[in-house]
Design brief:
Helix content: 40-55%
CATH topology of the domain at 5-39 and 79-148: Rossmann fold
Number of strands: 5
Shape: globular
InterPro entries: YtoQ_family_protein (IPR019884)
CATH architecture of the domain at 5-39 and 79-148: 3-Layer(aba) Sandwich
Protein name: YtoQ family protein
Number of helices: 6
């Protein structure tokens, strides 16, 4: 029985890049399981106050939610074999940059996924990554090569 690779998909939530990677790896027959942060923006923002009680101060509302989300995120990144971090051009994904730094601190292999226009602002993140892809299909090809050793 071959190893099932655990891939954590961090970052931008406004496009279908995760689905493209999942569909591509499935079509390639790759033994991969995926994990991701909560991608429902409203749930991710409100989880702390919804579960643990309301917060009137916005700082504590956000702080509580961030800590609840960190339980999931830190656990899944620790368990990942590879971390893919997607940066989109519409919003700043500070959380994705944090995830990349956390993964780097843990020694996890990182693949960044972003357009060429973001190359300069992400130079430190890309410097910690082992590969930079510009399209989800390139991530699928990277995973295929890493897992099977074939082009």
């Amino acid at each position: 029985m071959s190893k099932t690779w655990r891939v954590y998909l961090s970052g931008e939530i406004h496009t279908d890049w995760r689905e493209q990677i999942e569909t591509g790896t499935k079509a390639a027959g790759l033994p991969v399981s995926f994990a991701a942060p909560v991608t429902d923006h409203a749930s991710s923002d409100a989880c702390g106050a919804e579960i643990l009680g309301p917060e009137e101060n916005e700082f504590w509302f956000d702080n509580k939610g961030a800590k609840v989300n960190a339980i999931r995120t830190s656990t899944l990144i620790k368990d990942a074999d590879i971390v893919v971090v997607r940066f989109g051009d519409k919003y700043k994904q500070w959380n994705a940059a944090f995830d990349a730094g956390y993964a780097a601190a843990l020694g996890k292999p990182i693949i960044t996924l972003h357009d060429a226009e973001l190359r300069h602002p992400l130079k430190e993140v890309d410097g910690a990554a082992l590969a930079w892809a510009q399209e989800p299909s390139q991530v699928v090809r990277l995973l295929k090569y890493v897992i099977e050793g074939t082009l």
